[in-house]
Write a structure and sequence with these properties.
The protein is of the alpha+beta class. The protein has helices at about 25-35, 35-40, 55-65, 115-125, 140-150, and strands at about 1-5, 10-15, 20, 70-75, 85-95, 95-105, 130-135, 155-160, 165-175. It has one domain: Aminopeptidase (3-Layer(aba) Sandwich). A 9-stranded mixed beta sheet has the order 1-2-3-4-5-6-7-9-8, covered by helices on one side.
Amino acid sequence: MMFDQTNLQPVVTTARLALRPLREADRGLLQLYGDDIHVARNTTKIPHPLPPGAIEAFIARAQADDRDEDFWAMDGSIAGLPDLVGVIGLERMDRSQSEIGYWVAPAFWNAGLASEAVEGLVAANPHKARTIFGSVFQDNPASARVLTHAGFEYLGDAEAFSVARDANVATWTYIIKLD
């Protein structure tokens, strides 16, 4: 794994992915994948359908100097895949904690890319977090397997609001301690 610095946000390289900052050139694929109901319904924040300007606003937020969340494109070009196959993010929390979130485009599900991205980002630990949390919807056990495969341990049940579903959805919460 290679770790270097670009625009104060690290680029993390794994066997098949370069986790790199989002760029304007990602807009087309972000629009395509983000407007897929299968992607949106497995996240808390992506609305469905995407309103006009949503992707532009997301990229601007991801590039803002005062952001409290870092987003990385899962760039598969080093393995002959598209420049963007998904997105992974870390939100800074208090007490040296971060929360991880991720999605992969349906065409690349079950290929181990989410696991590779999560493992790479946890190993790099760009926020220097002592603890990373992750929550997944209970009707998405594949996402739970991604976290447990990366060493996260089950913490408990909760619920979170899904914008795409316009409803509270039961979640499983996981934790990994890094210190």
